[in-house]
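Regression test attached.
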Amino acid sequence: MNGWSAVVVALTLAAAGPAAAQFPSPPPEQLKGTPVTPARLPDGRPNWTGFWVTPNGLLETYRGPSGVTGQAPGANTRSTRRQDIPALKPPYDQRYAEALRKSAAGEIPDLVAACFPPGMPRMMVMVYGMEILQTPKIISITSEWQAATRRIWMDQKEHPPADELDPTYMGDSIGHWEGDTLVIDTVGIREDVPLDFGQVPHSPNMKIKERFTQVSPGVLVDEITIDDPDVFKEPWKYKMVYLHRPGLRLKEYVCLENNRNVDENGQAVFK
Amino acid sequence: MTTTAYVRTLLVAFAAIASLPVSAHHSFAMFDDTKEVTLKGTVHEFQWTNPHAWLQVDVIGAGGETEQWAVEMLSPNVLGRMGWKRNSLKPGDEVTVVIHPVRTGAKGGNMVSVRDKSGVQIGGPQQ
């Protein structure tokens, strides 16, 4: 199954169930991937400034030949069920298996449930909206999820030296344009930031490569490649689809306002 | 008011689809999305808050006693794009709520749908 047909199948399935009532998806013809000529900024670059939403079910992955799935016992989160995670190398495979076991048993905290930022790349794999603001030197992407903001430095050609790069939730992102495609390279993600709800680990050497392309009017695709040869036997690739909503604005989201989903140990609970 | 709290087990394939829209700021492994419980009751409190809105529903149990159920919803930003407002519900409103129940057996779950007294579903497709 090629990438886009996987999306269409997901849309078709969703249309059969109650999910369709809550999260309508764009017509399949919008998702066929025909590049469009986008609106442009004065500097000639595509203008994606505005508010975008992510309909559920549009996350897709490329299936690895020897991939293990990240299905935690009892877990039914979209991220762990729908993504095909490449096989992990030792010692990360054991570390991951242990994290899955502990997570299912409620023995390790769920950092986002405790209102920590989702970090990269999780903030791009979200149910919430996001706001893109573009200037010639900085492109800013703010997710409604924990109000997490990442900044992509367009005037920076290289990442800082490793000893000057403090690991952060969002990492250090540098970008450039290849035609109408925005290419972003991100490093420097904190090691305690899991890559999804399934506690997928990564190493300090992880690089995240992204290619943003507007494939049809109002439809933006982010092709994400997680390149971490210390951890994965092959790069982990998936696509996110974002839909432009010009009539809407980003809304405030203060996670600590009424967080009934975490106990005193930081574990996700229901109370 | 008569009360019904009943559990319906759905086909696994159907449940897998039904569970698609719920991912949010925490794992939803705590909910059993292979089951649905329908609650008929009155609104005790509607918490229009982040990271999730909550609907506290008073339900009359089998023995005639009032039970309060906690219904976790999406966040106000997503609910707002589905047509919900902070005043969509107020204490005393009669509602019918379908939830995926929490696995612990506690009186609560994750919202699937909410209908008002006349049976009209509150909220619709997300913009």
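Expected vs. actual: identical. Residues 36 and 62 of chain B are 18 Å apart (CA to CA).
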